[in-house]
Design a protein that fits this description.
This protein folds into three domains: 4-83 and 170-178, D-Maltodextrin-Binding Protein, domain 2, CATH 3.40.190; 86-161, D-Maltodextrin-Binding Protein, domain 2 (3-Layer(aba) Sandwich); 191-277, ACT domain (Alpha-Beta Plaits, 2-Layer Sandwich). The chain is built from nine helices and 15 strands. It has helices at residues 14-22, 34-43, 64-70, 105-108, 112-117, 128-138, 149-155, 205-215, 248-259; strands at 4-8, 27-31, 48-55, 59-60, 74-82, 86-89, 100-103, 121-124, 143-147, 158-161, 171-178, 191-199, 220-227, 235-242, 261-271. Strands 1, 2, 3, 4, 5 and 11 form a six-stranded mixed β-sheet that branches. The protein has a five-stranded mixed β-sheet with strand order 8-7-9-6-10. Strand 3 (48-55) and strand 4 (59-60) form a beta hairpin. It is elongated, with a radius of gyration of 21 Å. The two termini are 34 Å apart. Its EC number is 4.2.1.51.
Length: 282
């Protein structure tokens, strides 16, 4: 029996697509929420979790960066999935019959131009694949859904308009999470190290903490802040760098960072996905 990989959403979701593309050897396990997907890995119901973290058009996925540090899991890989958005309808329906489409807010926001041009009403839905399933159940040619090609196949729907996303490089980045870290693995290309930290309450602490990466030639590819515990003064930072903690320049940078922080925790060390450095046009 093969293992399982958990994702947020129903069959046909983009997380499902990510699982099929990045881990075809594992059985996808649909979960209602990101919390549920993470919990499935924690409990051992799945070996891995496929968690969406950001989209090239819409930005970061809300709340995920707050979930990751508290998950108890480790990032062991990343996957970039080209997000093609399609208008799905019941078999035999035509685009000019549509009055309204439903989908998650994040997907509606990635196809604003098309929706405005065709004068389509929108209805926010909990999940893209769930929207497709609802359309199949309704059987109404005036109702449509925005979802993937995979969702069309899963729920027996027609694709009424294909690839309607506003930007031709629309891509979502996922991280693959596991119960145990793997710090020994080295990819053929750059390694990525993800971590969270909180700076000490001293003047210019963040500026000084970041200086160590610049002086040691470590490329920081991401730095995001968010409040923790509902306090404006308690700010946590999520960061990603190119390099491995065993690299000497990374060690030196972390030594300087540690001096100016009151909390520092590794979230994962993993090979950079090739698509990180590609211009995706497929």
């Amino acid at each position: 029996m093969s293992g399982r990989i958990a994702f947020q959403g129903e069959p046909g979701a983009y997380g499902h697509q990510a699982c099929l593309e990045a881990r075809p050897d594992l059985d996808p396990l649909p979960c209602p929420t990101f919390d549920d997907a993470i919990e499935a890995v924690r409990k051992g119901d799945a070996e891995l979790g496929m968690i969406a973290v950001e989209n090239s058009t819409y930005g970061r996925v809300a709340d995920v960066h707050q979930l990751l540090p508290e998950s108890g899991l480790n990032i062991v890989d990343e996957a970039f999935v080209r997000i093609h958005i399609n208008v799905l309808g019941v078999p035999g329906a035509r685009l000019n019959q549509l009055r309204r489409v439903r989908s998650m807010d994040i997907l509606l926001g990635q196809a604003r131009d098309f929706l405005r041009e065709h004068g389509l009403e929108t209805l926010k839905w909990s999940d893209n694949a769930a929207a497709a399933r609802e359309i199949a159940a309704l059987g109404d040619p005036s109702e449509g859904a925005l979802a993937s090609d995979l969702a069309a196949r899963v729920y027996g729907l027609d694709v009424l308009a294909r690839h309607i996303e506003d930007h031709d490089r629309n891509t979502t980045r996922f991280v693959v999470m596991a119960r145990e870290p793997d710090y020994k693995r080295r990819g053929k290309g750059p390694m990525i190290t993800s971590f969270v930290f909180r700076v000490r309450n001293i003047p210019a602490a963040l500026y000084k903490a970041m200086g160590g990466f610049a002086t040691n030639g470590v490329n920081m590819t991401k730095l995001e802040s968010y409040m923790v515990g509902g306090h404006f003064t308690a700010t946590q930072f999520y960061a990603e760098i190119e390099g491995h903690p065993d690299d000497r320049n990374v060690q030196l940078a972390f030594e300087e960072l540690d001096y100016f922080t009151e909390q520092l925790r590794l979230l994962g060390v993993y090979p950079a996905a090739p698509r990180r450095y590609e211009i995706v046009r497929d």
